[in-house]
Amino acid sequence: MRLRVLDFGIVPALRSQAVYHGIAETITAESDPVLSLASPETPYVCVGIHQEVAKEVDEEYCASAGLPVYRRHVGGGAVYLDRNQLFTHFIYPRKKAPEFAVNLYPLFIEPVVRTYRELGVDAQYRPINDIQVKGRKIGGTGAASIGEATLLVGSFMFDFDTETMARCLKVPSEKFRDKLRQSLTDYMTTMKKELAEVPSREHIKARFLAHCADVLGVEVVEDKPSDAELAAIARAETALADPAWTHLQGKKLVELGVKIAAGTHLTESTYKAPGGLIRVHLLGRHGQIENLMISGDFTCLPPDGVDRLAARLAGAPLQLELLTEAIEDVVGELTLQTPGVSAFDMATAIMAAVEHSD
Asked: Structural domain of residue 32, as residue ranges?
């Protein structure tokens, strides 16, 4: 099996996200898998598909600093991105990739880990989807499905601006921001921190492609994007730049609030599962779910599965055991994949919102 490598180099910020969104839309069952590589020319903030921008990002600061905010079609959290990262996007026809999301991570992370180790960085895969060096994070990954494609996105970290990252995020106080800044500095590492000399992009790319060939059992072929792929990337740029898409979750929250009636309470909760943060907005009425919005930085495949799950839970009893069973049933019927997030985790997050209404 061939692996087409499309190296876009240094590209405008929006295009660094649009390349894999667009290519994914062109994938068919017969397509060769694609590995796209890119780095953004200028910095920006990127939020996960299930996140609420207003809850996660200090939009006022980002506007004043000239940092655009984009929403991707991949789960995970808000992150500051710049040209000090080399983005890697594995884009596979669904039938040519592992069937379950939990199996995507170890497979596609392995070439990255091997590359780091060859460079002298003692990297290790840390389930569910992180890469660590002696307990410090040097990269995360995200899985998604777009059209007929399965994706695994990640990056190589040359350096990371923890100061700006801490400034971009929404926090309850400046004291908390100081703690966040220190936590990011302590917990994250990069090639600049780990190595006496940071290797060139070309050297990293060459070693990475060699490990991709070995681990994935593919013939690596460097290629150029087709006209159809370039057109799809351009369409993706337009879609990703749409403010309605960026603030999609906020729009859902407004619509949810409009539905409040007598005896119905809109409450909010957060719960940290192994697979990420779950944020719940709940309209509860007479001990049942009236309406529900679920957001957060976890992964769900397919991406619209979170909204479909929430819709199907209308009328479910607000009791932990019964709600867990209801979620298990819906997840099974919809064949959803939420690695690191169980039905019990979802139910616990929802019940935490019930407690907030007491």
From this structure: 2-242
Q: What is the DSSP string of 61-118?
A: HHHHTT--EEE-SS-S--EEE-TTEEEEEEEEEGGGS-SSHHHHHHHHHHHHHHHHHH
Statement to judge: residues 133 and 46 lie in one domain: yes
Residues 305 and 179 in one domain: no
Residue pLDDT, tens place only, 206-226: 999 999 999 999 999 999 999
Q: What is the dihedral of CA 149, 155, 156, 159, to 10 degrees?
A: 160
Q: Quick: pLDDT tens for 221-249.
A: 999 999 999 999 999 999 999 999 999 87
Strands 136-140 and 265-273: unpaired
Residue 116 tokens, joined: 């780091």
Please identify, among 242, 269, 288, the residue that sits at the C-terminal boundary of a domain. Answer: 242
Q: What is the pLDDT of residue 249?
A: 78
Same domain assignment for residues 233 and 254? no
Average pLDDT over every residue of 1-11: 98
pLDDT of residue 259: 47
- What is the arithmetic mean of pLDDT over 259-279? 79
Number of neighbouring beta carbons within 10 Å of residue 187? 12
Same domain flag for 268 and 207: no
What's the CATH code of the domain at 129?
A: 3.30.930.10
Q: Are residues 6 and 101 in the same domain?
A: yes
Sheet holding 136-140, edge to edge: 123-126, 130-133, 136-140
How many domains are there within the chain? 2
Q: Based on the domain organization, do 294 and 198 belong to the same domain?
A: no
For 279, residues 6+ apart whose C-beta sits below 8 A from its C-beta are: 52, 55, 268, 269, 270, 294, 295, 296, 349
Task: Give pTM, 2 decimals.
Answer: 0.89
- Rg (C-alpha) for the chain, rounded Å, is 21
The residue among 186, 221, 242 that closes a domain is: 242
Give the residue from 96, 102, 112, 223 showing the smallest Cα distance to 150. 96
Tens digits of per-residue pLDDT, 119-141? 999 999 999 999 999 999 999 89
